[in-house]
Amino acid sequence: MDYFLELFLGGLTRGSIYALIALGYTMVYGIIQLINFAHGEIYMIGAFTALIVISVLMSTGMNPVAVILIAGFVAVIYSCAYGFTLEKIAYKPLRNAPRLSALISAIGMSLFLQNYVLLAQTCDFLPFPNLIPDFECIEPFAHIIGSTDVVILVTTAVVMIILTILIRYTKIGKAMRATSQDRVMASLMGIDVNTVISFTFILGSATAAIGGVLIASHIGMINFYIGFIAGIKAFVAAVLGGIGSLPGAVLGGFVLGWTESFATGYISSDYEDVFAFLFLVLILIFKPSGILGRSEQSKV
Question: Is residue 283 part of a domain?
Fold first, then answer.
């Protein structure tokens, strides 16, 4: 039973990280119907930024909890700046172009950011210190779940609640929903569509950066390629849940995390990715819109 719980909670933790990144995918797609394939690299840049800040602050003897909080805050700000710049340079000029052009631009920016970090840092794996303290209340269950897992799960829940409140009850949230339904009509109603789209990219970049810092603390190492793998997995999670749906992105992340965890635990770690993408294929065959997605009808 303990082994099952360990796999279940491990999959929940993994799924939470996928969910944090998938939220960025699904928000951007919901607004401009674009898959931002450079989103995984924003996650990677957030992790590297946090590592640089941690390396500087740890030399001052600062409290580890304060260090990880400051590093996370700086990583979010830096990643948001990258997300904003990315939208202005690579996507805004192609907003009215064929979707294939924007897709190629997104892939190109993904490769550019990978190689940029490779040249600026190193191709080797770098150790990432885990500064999250152990919680005494979970000591009896330390063999099943760690303090980092708890922080990841709580953070994902808090981020999801904040995003739900922001989108449903705030002025910018209403503007995002209006822009998602009809960009032209929203613009005619006085909504600054460009600001809404930029804000969406910033918001998605923030959730990716948070995920980058947390998973780096959990795994204990990073390199320039982590964004590509995590980005692809998060994209799968977004499609599984129903791309364009925030609850769907979270649910898709959990489903993918559990699939990988149980496949690794009961079958073989060699087939972890196989089962994840096989599950995606099955979902697309039997429910192309995703678990919580809605089928779109086009008028002729």
Answer: no
β-pair partners for 221: 127
Using only C-alpha atoms, the chain has a radius of gyration, in whole angstroms, of 19
**Which residues are within 8 A (CB) of 232 and not within 5 positions of it... i.e. 6 or more apart?**
40
Residue 187 lies in a domain: yes
- What is the Cα 198 distance to its own chain's centre? 17
Q: Which two tokens stand for residue 283?
A: 């979902």
Q: Which residue has the tokens 């400051």?
A: 70
CA distance 67 to 58: 7
The predicted-structure confidence for 121-135, as pLDDT tens digits, reads as follows 888 889 998 888 776
pLDDT in tens, 204-217: 899 999 988 988 88
Helix (H, G, I), strand (E, B) or coil at 126: strand
- Nearest CA to 74 out of 93, 96, 52 is that of 52
Note whether 89 and 19 are within 8 A (CB): no
Please indicate, yes or no, if residue 59 is contained in any of the structural domains: yes
Closest C-alpha among 161, 149, 206 to residue 16? 149
- In this predicted structure, the answer to whether residue 140 has a pLDDT above a threshold of 60 is no
Give the total number of structural domains in the chain.
Answer: 1
CB 217 within 8 A of CB 54: no
* Token pair in block for residue 29: 């797609």
Structure tokens at 163: 């995003």
Q: Give the domain extent around 99.
A: 20-125+136-239
Residue 81 covered by a domain:
yes
pTM of the entire predicted model: 0.86
> How far is it, in rounded angstroms, from Cα 253 to Cα 23?
9
- Residue 297 phi/psi, 5-degree rounding, is -110, 130
Give every CB contact of residue 195 below 8 A, 6+ residues apart in sequence: none
